[in-house]
Amino acid sequence: MRRLLAAAVAATALVAAGPAAAAAPAPPFVGGVTPLSKAARQRMTPSVWRPGCPVGLGQLRAVLVTHRDLRGRVRRGVIVVHRDVARDVLGVFRTMYEGGVRIRRVRPIEAYGGDDFASIEADNTSAFNCRAATGSTRWSQHAYGRAIDINPIENPYISHGATSHRASEPYLDRRRARPGMAVEGGAMVRAFDAIGWGWGGRWGEPKDTQHFSASGG
User: Fold this and answer.
1) pLDDT at 19
2) Cis preceding linkage at 108, omega within 30
3) Which of 35, 38, 95, 110 is the most exposed place for a label (fewest CB within 10 A)?
4) Which domain, by its residues, includes 195?
5) pLDDT band at 24 (very low <50, low <70, confident <90, very high)
6) In whole angstroms, what is the distance from residue 199 CA to residue 217 CA?
7) The pTM is what?
8) b/e per residue, 97-118, with b = 16+ CB within 10 A?
């Protein structure tokens, strides 16, 4: 498992580029759930987790997932969530992989110093981050490890028809589905519906089309 997690953090490509590789069948989904390593805990502290956060590091799990990037290449990543939802999250990523969902990258947010804006700019899919909800002083569901933001460039937080990220502007128009987008009835949204998670794309104003959470909020 440790070797798999190391490969995931490095985001090593599983399928090489080239005509021969493109013709080869995609490898099966590989995934697993493990407690946070000592090194991971050290990387997370204090930018992502600190004393006073609503959950302890012992309550979190690293979930190794296989995913297709936006070019269809098969890669591995790691996402950190609460232990109570870790198996469901693993199953969702398996379902998305088998359903052909494209996800640019999946890295724990400490790779971006716990900076949500920087992680979004990198179009990174992430989960746990001990922070307040956008525009609020209350804890985000991310601070409990019970929310995931997927492809935040293709799936922007939309307030009054606008986004804070220039690369997301073409995706304000949700009528035309493109790779990586979360859309009603699409494989990504269906996978989360199957485990009872809510989707921010169904909110009124603002909409958070990247956001899926166990509570719906």
Assistant:
1) 45
2) no
3) 38
4) 2-213
5) low
6) 8
7) 0.87
8) beeebbbbbbbbbbbbebbbee
DSSP letters of 115-167?
-HHHHHHTTEEB-----BPTTSSSBPGGGGT-EEE--TTTS-EEBTTB-S-GG
Distance in angstroms (rounded) separating the CA atoms of residues 43 and 46: 8
CA distance 181 to 171: 8
Question: Which helix (DSSP H) or strand (DSSP E) does residue 87 occupy?
Answer: helix 86-98
Question: In sequence order, what are the beta bridge partners of 139?
Answer: 132
Angle, vertex CA 87, rays to CA 120 and CA 15, nearest 5: 60
Cα 215–209–159 angle (5° rounding)? 105
Mean pLDDT of the residues in the chain: 90
Give the Cα separation of 182 and 209 in Å (integer). 7
- In this structure, the number of other CB atoms found within 10 A of the CB of residue 62 comes to 22
The answer to whether residues 100 and 180 touch, using CB atoms and an 8 Å cutoff, is no
CA 59 to chain centre: 18
CB 155 within 8 A of CB 146: no
Q: Which amino acid is at 107?
A: R
Task: Compute CA 162 distance to the chain's CA centroid, rounded to the nearest angstrom.
Answer: 22
pLDDT per residue as tens digits for the range 37-75: 999 999 999 999 999 999 999 999 999 999 999 999 999
Q: Is 193 helix (H, G, I), strand (E, B) or coil?
A: helix
Task: Please tell me the distance from the alpha carbon of residue 112 to that of residue 83, in angstroms, as a whole number.
Answer: 23
Q: How many independent structural domains does the chain possess? A: 1
Identity at 149, one-letter amino acid code: D
And the tokens for 118?
Answer: 């920087």
